[in-house]
């Protein structure tokens, strides 16, 4: 296992459907850790199967004709665009990845596959009952990720 205090090569920023209102906060968190280290940022948008189908319909992909690739779909998402603009302004290297699956486990799988040195996820404050009933993607990522996780709470 890499020592997270020595060097960051890869930072995974995982975004989802609830992150549009905090894209600037997420970008600032990424800049704080990636920019000084010269790390590459993986901008990952994770969709559940239902979310992915809805996005394909909304973006009017013809599934019989178009080669539908989750990376291409993620690259067309507005939250990714907003964060890209900020990273471009600060000359930070990044790649875009899309993935389909349950949010928490898929983010952990992505972190492992890209050998992330840090994962950044957004979330909102929830009551213990809310976490028990609805689950918490951020909590699952923090407990299961192969590296340190930075949680960016919504400014609600």
From TrEMBL:
Protein name (database record): Nucleotide-binding universal stress protein, UspA family
One Pfam family in the UniProt entry: Usp
InterPro entries: Rossmann-like_a/b/a_fold, Universal_stress_UspA, UspA
Protein family per UniProt: Belongs to the universal stress protein A family.
Ranges of residues in domain UspA: 7-153
Originating species: Natrinema salifodinae
Highest taxon listed in the record's lineage: Archaea
């Amino acid at each position: 296992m890499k020592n997270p205090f020595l060097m960051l090569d890869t930072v995974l920023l995982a975004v989802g459907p609830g992150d549009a209102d905090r894209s600037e906060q997420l970008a600032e968190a990424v800049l704080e850790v990636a920019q000084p280290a010269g790390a590459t940022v993986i901008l990952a948008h994770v969709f559940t199967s239902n979310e992915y189908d809805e996005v394909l319909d909304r973006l009017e992909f013809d599934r019989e004709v178009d080669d539908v690739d989750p990376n291409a779909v993620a690259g067309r998402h507005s939250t990714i665009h907003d964060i890209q603009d900020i990273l471009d302004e600060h000359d930070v290297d990044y790649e875009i990845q899309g993935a389909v699956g349950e949010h928490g486990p898929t983010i952990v799988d992505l972190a492992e596959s890209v050998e992330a040195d840090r994962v950044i996820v957004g979330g909102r404050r929830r009551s213990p009952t809310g976490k028990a009933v609805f689950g918490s993607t951020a909590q699952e990522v923090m407990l299961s990720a192969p590296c340190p996780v930075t949680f960016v709470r919504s400014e609600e």
